[in-house]
Design brief:
Helix content is about 75%, strand content about 0%. It has about 300 residues and is mostly helical.
Length: about 300
Amino acid sequence: MGIPRHAYVVLLVGLLAISVSPILVRYAAEAPGDVVAVWRTVTAAALLAVPALLRSRAEIASFTRREWTLIGTAGVFLGLHFVAFISSLYYTTVSSASVLVSLSPIFMGLIGWVLLRERLTRREVIGIAVAISATVVLQMTQGEAAVAAARPFLGNTLALSAAALVAVYLIIGRVVRQHRSWLAYVAPLYAVTALTTVAVALLRGAPLFGWPWYIYGLCVLMALIPQLLGHGAFNYAIKYFPAATLGVASLAEPIGASALALGLFSEVPTLPGVAAMTVILVSVAFVLYTPKASSGSS
């Protein structure tokens, strides 16, 4: 079965929307990362609750115990991903965090191969290898911005953890979305995600109230643009693309985020960094336009 053209458009829109996330987080840096993660995910879950009740209540009620388990697990991993990734931006540069979180194809390729029997084609293996190598080069060529970061090792570790967490979430989505509609899957998923971030914030004693109104406004924007539009697009596209392919496509996100960071925060990439971004973009196109021999769908 071929991939419909509109799936590519949805994926492109999703990539652009997700690229905005690090920028909005930086502007909300007055509040702790746990607080930002809570209000972003709670807002997204609230916005989807009413449409889901009106249009997908019967489908959600028909979920099997296995589907609830999968969605609950994916929601927990996505919530932890948001906490880790948002927190990483407080300690390292936008480009470093964005690049490292995009290393998810390593985890997705392994998980997809082991659990979903999604065999990687030669083009995918080459594309992943080249793209990952380029992300490493990009990470090593951050220039003065990396030196100025508060605690780059901690930030980079959090971003890498976020990559592993989001890989599991996308792999599970690949399974559930084969038989369920977008809204029926995403609404309960985001509810669990919100509960997870709230639990983490309460455990860490993060103050959720009393922040300036612009902080809450930025969280609403994060819910609308990178989460509902960005992650929502990925949740839609996961029905058509293998998880590993989406992981490679996500490698384009650091390019957009780095370009925005350059204009807004003067985080100037080095020349090797620019070259690495170019290689990443070419690798993404190389893999996305691969004629698929088998999607390995379950």
